[in-house]
């Protein structure tokens, strides 16, 4: 009996090795897991997980909330949609809209937004709405220092992506346990480019690479929590050459922020699992040549810092109320 069990295990191990990928192993494990879940449907409802998923107990809500820092450009419909959604999230303190269009926001847009905020905010909490109007159209605008900010942390977001409030609040709680760290939903990775034997060249990689390896070193500011001190550091302490590079190339402000936080903390960011709903159509990342430009940014910033501050990790924060299996 023992022998047969042993040999069966060796065969299975051999098969997995032949396939040779941890990811495939994971997929297999998931299949087995789903079968188990299907079989044990009764057990899970008995344990009452559903009952708790999605609603944090009142007492665990912090008194201080977060500020929504939303970047928008000539897409008022998307702005209206996302603001009316986020206004309903319980931890939201205030909303700052980064406005870089030549014309100031119209009276009707401001009225509409104030109206939906009042309508959707929970328990009639007062949410402050502010426009940060910029004369110059630069990607650095989104990281300008905000004076008199009620909260310590901003949730930086693009106008075309929406997360459910439970997901946002979960990421917020992750940030609270690591307030110096960047915490968010869109991870990216840099690799050392060994193709020409040069150890100091890096490549920027997107979602597939992160998914395949489970490793990342950046969290993009299109959906991330970070401490407000990084806004003032970005504007006042980061080398101005980096800001100039961002303005000139109209790209990579998010990578610059990742470098800044990594240099300050010496630690990796934290990736939070969450479902993303994209409400817009195409963004900058679907334009051609995007990858090469991003790779250039990574190399240029690393040279500017005199070293590579980004730290890789494979930690992923998951809401344990929503995970099926311990
Ligand atoms: C990186 O961090 C160090 C130590 O905190 C600091 O002295 C240095 O100015 C930072 N580098 C840049 C380029 O911001």
What can you see in these coordinates?
This protein has an 8-stranded mixed sheet with strand order 3-2-1-4-10-6-11-13, sandwiched between helices. Residues 1-20, 41-54 and 57-62 have low confidence and may be disordered. Helix 5 packs parallel to helix 6. The chain has helices at 2-19, 22-39, 41-47, 49-52, 76-86, 107-120, 165-177, 207-213, 229-237, 240-249, 253-265, 290-305, and strands at 66-72, 92-99, 128-133, 153-158, 161-162, 183-184, 187-192, 202-205, 218-219, 223-227, 270-272, 277-278, 316-317. It has a single domain, classed as Alpha-Beta Complex (Spore Coat Polysaccharide Biosynthesis Protein SpsA, Chain A). The chain contains 12 helices and 13 strands. Helix 6 links the parallel strand 2 (92-99) and strand 3 (128-133). The protein has 326 residues and is α/β, with parallel strands linked by helices. The structure holds 2-acetamido-2-deoxy-beta-D-glucopyranose.
């Amino acid at each position: 009996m023992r022998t047969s069990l042993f040999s069966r295990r060796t065969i299975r191990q051999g098969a997995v090795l032949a396939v040779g990928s941890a990811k495939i192993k994971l997929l297999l494990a998931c299949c087995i897991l789903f079968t188990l879940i299907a079989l044990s449907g009764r057990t899970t409802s008995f344990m009452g997980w559903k009952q708790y998923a999605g609603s944090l107990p009142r007492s665990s809500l912090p008194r201080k909330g977060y500020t929504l820092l939303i970047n928008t450009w000539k897409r008022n419909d998307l702005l209206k949609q996302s603001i009316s959604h986020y206004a309903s999230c319980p931890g939201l303190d205030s909303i700052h809209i980064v406005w870089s269009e030549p014309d100031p926001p119209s009276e009707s847009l401001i009225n509409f937004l104030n109206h939906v905020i009042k309508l959707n905010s929970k328990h009639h909490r007062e949410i402050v709405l502010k426009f940060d109007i910029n004369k110059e159209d630069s990607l650095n605008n989104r990281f300008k220092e905000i004076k008199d900010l009620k909260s310590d942390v901003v949730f930086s977001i693009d106008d075309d992506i929406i997360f459910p409030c439970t997901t946002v609040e979960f990421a917020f709680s992750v940030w609270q346990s690591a307030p110096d760290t960047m915490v968010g939903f869109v991870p990216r990775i840099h690799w050392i480019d060994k193709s020409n034997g040069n150890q100091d060249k890096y490549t920027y990689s997107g979602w597939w690479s992160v998914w395949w390896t489970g490793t990342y070193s950046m969290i993009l500011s299109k959906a991330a929590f970070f401490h407000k001190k990084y806004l003032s550091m970005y504007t006042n302490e980061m080398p101005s050459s980096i800001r100039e590079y961002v303005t000139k190339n109209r790209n990579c402000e998010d990578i610059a922020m990742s470098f800044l936080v990594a240099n300050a903390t010496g630690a990796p960011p934290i990736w939070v699992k969450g479902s993303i709903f994209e409400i817009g159509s195409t963004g900058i990342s679907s334009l051609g040549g995007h990858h090469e430009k991003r790779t250039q940014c990574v190399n240029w910033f690393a040279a500017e810092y005199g070293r590579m501050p980004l730290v890789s990790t494979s930690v992923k924060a998951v809401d344990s109320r929503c995970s099926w299996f311990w």
